[in-house]
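re the bet — no i am not wrong, look at it urself. input seq straight from the record:
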Amino acid sequence: MSIDSIQFEGVKMGLRQSKDGYVLSLAVHPDDIPDDLVRDFVGSRYMTVMVRLGDDEQPMQRKRQNNYVQMAGLLCRDRKFQAFVSGEFNGFADDEELTAEWLCNYLSINSRSELPNNQAACQLLLELKRDYEAWKS
């Protein structure tokens, strides 16, 4: 089975949130818009791949950043989070090292550096942080 793809250049014009998710607006030059895209009905679904172009018209290399690793590190250093872990989970976590060890066990990972490649652990970390924020207030 062969897959037909359409390619065009677009310029990001806006991003807003709706009840269905994010709505991305692109401006496409009239000479660049594919006929298939114009003919497809509103509501058609697409698999989208986007590459940002630099001033030299070449794809830009983005530095990947994982905020989950940073978030986990900040939480482990947070004295209030340590108290939260000790009180809510009966985890002995009165310093950063013990808290990091507890967190890794809780997330079923060996090291916080595994977070960029473990969506389940990231989701669990987000839920834990939400619970912690609720506990604080």
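see?? Residues 67-136 form one domain. told u. also Strands lie at 11-18, 21-27. so pay up
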